[in-house]
Specification:
The complex is a heterodimer of chains A (about 400) and B (about 325). Helix content of chain A is about 40%, strand content about 25%. With about 400 residues, chain A is α/β, with parallel strands linked by helices. Chain A folds into two domains: about 210 residues, 3-Layer(aba) Sandwich (Rossmann fold), CATH 3.40.50; about 160 residues, Rossmann fold. In chain A, a hairpin with a 6-residue loop joins strand 13 and strand 14. In chain A, helix 3 packs parallel to helix 4. Helices cover about 75% and strands about 0% of the residues of chain B. Classes of the chains: A alpha/beta (about 400), B mainly alpha (about 325). Chains A and B meet through helix 1, strand 3, helix 3, helix 4 and helix 6 of A and helix 3 and helix 4 of B.
Chain lengths: ~400, ~325
């Protein structure tokens, strides 16, 4: 039906044209996040980061007004994320797509960024491979190998641990964390004496912790999803006497984030974690960020999602400034490559080759400060790149 | 079904009745004309329209067992998801042709459905609900555990589907995706129509109404239920395969309980035991979801809940059932 499709194309072209005409004054940013469903909390924290940045920096950049169009995936739902990205491009006429709390959703939308030639800013999804899926993707969050590979090396070289046990949740991020920690640790000279995987939903940790105890390792590396699990595993560990300093406990930052610390109580003392953002890091930029964030969000503290959204917006603003308002995907990606700035988390930059973030990795220990448990930075590994990029080539 | 002692006239009468039931009504024809409307008036909604068509095919497959044969299920996403993964894995073996991919995935899932049906036909009511629910959850966990095959939570990577007939590639607007899914939905509906308006379809309704009575009139039910369950599973598998092919994505959510529940919600909204109930339900559910989520990304499910409650309270037979009743009343 040549006539039908010509007509439809004509209408379509008309709509794009009007969207294009509008883009003269505004830059539309489509934000795709799981605003509803099990990851709604993460999405809202990320969104609060976006809002705070815009509140502090205004919505005008390079003479254009920034407009945010929010879309919910209810995810994890890559097919929905892909459809929303398509719709944002063809219907809403967005110039940039952003958000992406979850890896499958970022991977789902990646093809659309390539096809439509739009800048895609990944503000959370933490699997290494994400940025390789499209030349238009730039990431402002973190990758799991980035923080854990460096941590594995550190554990042997500076942590003084010769052998360790790994205990991770049995899903993608857990597997990644286990692999990269073990890689860093063994490359440095350490030995992994045992590895176990716990169920993602409602695990009973006591049996697993007992197995760890029977192996009596110097240290145990733990990765569990946030929520109620850090407290549960903390309790299981202390019940069986697996506590620092007798047994060192390592993990990624989520294990000891403020809410988890509160529910873990004294069990958390001495746990060493690795992360790219530390709420308590004493530094003027971070202090101001935390204070402003708490004020805007009912005294809720920012977390890794918030900082990903905040820095993602900074990248969008600065890239637009550099291109002088040119919103073409190619120009924006070029502008983003190699960009470096001071974020509340510390100095960060975008690797021009992989378009992935380069940042400091902080090694923190849970200590009591003024009667309250918090993550105290005991070491900083500077300018860490994701160790997996290019590894497959 | 034929009773050997019945005379020729009764048989002829029954056959004529079945044929009459199977005639195309003007509403149906109007509906199939209306599906072309998005091409001209909502070209920016074609991707959504293609996903609605997929959901409609899935709902149709559930209607065949739930609406016509009375097999309640809360785990049909199992077949949808298996179809989706089958289609995705097939492209990874190097065969990305979509039409044969659809058939192979459908056949594979029908086979799984056939195996499962041996359990399904032996239980009823709550036990059936629990078994379908359990099988669905087990499949999801299995897919999660077998991340070497399925990609786990990150989803299956490297799915690449060839253009349809080697020429029509999947565009950003969704012209190809919608045309393709619509065509498959139409074929699915033709098959469902043929089944429903046949002696076999009639016997299914008999089973739904009174399970114990059917053997008494010489119609054993287990074999029939197995047949329809297998067909339904295959159709759900084709719907899942369509999703993979049009989005080149497969992730664990294709197997989720949410998907099994949503499809039942669609059916209840539209009306069970009517071929178009699932289709209308899918349209209303997906459009409402899209619009409500656009207005308020955080709390749209609240409004879906309200909508469902209103429909269930005011129109117990679904929207189509309600319209049919209304029509009856006007005619009288």
């Amino acid at each position: 039906m040549p006539t039908k499709s010509t007509l439809a194309l004509a209408i379509a072209a008309g709509l794009t044209w009007s969207a294009g005409a509008q883009a003269q004054e505004t830059v539309k940013v489509g934000v795709i996040l799981p605003y509803s469903g099990p990851f709604a909390d993460a999405a809202n924290q990320l969104d609060a980061g976006i809002k705070l940045y815009m509140q502090q920096n205004g919505d005008m950049v390079a003479g254009k007004k920034i407009e945010i169009v929010r879309k919910d995936t209810g995810g994890p739902a890559p097919d929905v994320a892909k459809r929303l990205a398509q719709e944002l491009v063809v219907r809403d006429g967005v110039d940039i797509i952003a958000g992406f709390a979850l890896t499958p959703e970022a991977l789902g939308a990646a093809d659309v960024a390539t096809q439509a030639k739009k800048l895609m800013v990944v503000m959370n999804a933490a699997t290494s491979v994400v940025t390789e899926k499209s030349p238009y993707i730039v990431r402002t969050s973190v990758t799991i190998p980035q923080v854990n590979y460096a941590f594995g090396k550190w554990a042997f070289e500076k942590g003084g641990v010769k052998q360790a046990y790994t205990l991770v949740a049995d899903y993608g991020p857990g597997h990644d964390a286990e692999k990269s920690f073990a890689k860093g640790f063994t490359e440095a000279g350490g030995t992994i004496v045992g590895a176990d995987k716990t169920p993602v939903a409602n695990p009973d940790f006591s049996a697993f912790v007992q197995r760890v105890k029977d192996a009596s390792p110097e240290a145990v590396y733990i990765f569990v999803p946030g929520g109620g699990q850090p407290a549960a595993i903390g309790k299981a560990l202390s019940e069986r006497g697996l506590t620092p300093p007798a047994t060192r406990i390592f993990g990624q930052g989520e294990l000891t984030h403020p809410e988890a610390l509160e529910s873990m109580g004294g069990n958390a003392r001495g746990i060493v974690t690795t992360f790219h953002y530390t709420l308590e890091r004493e530094e003027p930029l971070n202090n101001a960020f935390v204070a402003a964030y708490r004020e805007a969000n009912n005294s809720r503290s920012p977390d890794l999602f918030s900082i990903g959204g905040y820095d993602g917006m900074h990248l969008i603003y600065e890239a637009l400034r550099k291109t002088n308002g040119d919103t073409s995907g190619d120009a924006l990606v070029e502008a983003a490559k190699g960009m470096a700035w001071d974020s509340p988390r510390g100095p960060i930059s975008i690797d021009p080759e992989t378009r992935d973030i380069v940042q400091n990795v902080y090694i923190r220990e849970v200590q009591e400060v003024g009667g309250k448990l918090q993550n105290v930075i005991i070491d900083t590994i500077e300018n860490v790149k994701d160790p997996l990029h290019g590894a497959s080539n | 079904m034929a009773d050997p002692s019945a005379n020729q006239a009764t048989i002829a009468g029954t056959q004529a009745w079945i044929r009459r039931q199977g005639r195309w009504s003007p509403y149906e024809i109007a509906f199939w004309i209306a599906v072309f409307v998005p091409f001209f008036f909502f070209p920016t909604y074609l991707t959504l329209a293609s996903q609605i068509a997929i959901a409609a095919l899935f709902a149709l497959s559930v209607d065949l067992i739930l609406g016509y044969a009375g097999i309640i299920t809360l785990g049909h996403a199992m077949f949808f998801g298996l179809g989706a993964y089958a289609a995705g894995l097939l492209t990874k073996t190097g065969w990305g042709e979509p039409l044969t991919g659809l058939l192979i995935s459908g056949a594979f899932v029908a086979l799984v459905g056939f195996v499962v049906s041996f359990v399904i036909v032996r239980v009823q009511h709550l036990a059936l609900l629990m078994i379908t629910l359990g099988l669905g959850l087990l499949t999801l966990e299995l897919a999660n555990a077998m991340s070497w095959l399925t990609g786990g939570t990150d989803g299956l990577q490297g799915v690449s589907v060839w253009p349809i007939f080697g020429t029509f590639d999947y565009d950003l607007w969704g012209y190809t995706a919608y045309s393709y899914t619509l065509a498959v939905l139409f074929v699915g509906l033709l098959i469902a129509r043929r089944i429903v308006h046949s002696a076999f379809g009639l016997s299914l309704r008999g089973i739904r109404e009174n399970l114990n009575r059917m053997p008494a009139i010489g119609a054993p039910y287990q074999r029939r239920l197995q047949v329809i369950y297998t067909i339904s599973a295959g159709m759900a598998g084709v719907a899942g395969a369509l999703l993979t092919q049009t989005t080149s994505q497969v992730a664990l959510d294709v197997l989720s309980f949410q998907r099994s529940a949503d499809v039942v919600v669609m059916l209840i909204l539209g009306g069970t035991g009517r071929l178009y109930g699932g289709i209308i339900g899918a349209i209303i559910f997906m459009v409402a979801r899209d619009q409500l989520a656009g207005i308020n990304p955080q709390y749209w499910y609240f409004w879906i809940g309200i909508l469902l409650m209103i429909v269930v309270l005011v129109m117990p037979k679904g929207i189509l059932g309600f319209l049919a009743q209304l029509w009856e009343r006007i005619r009288r």
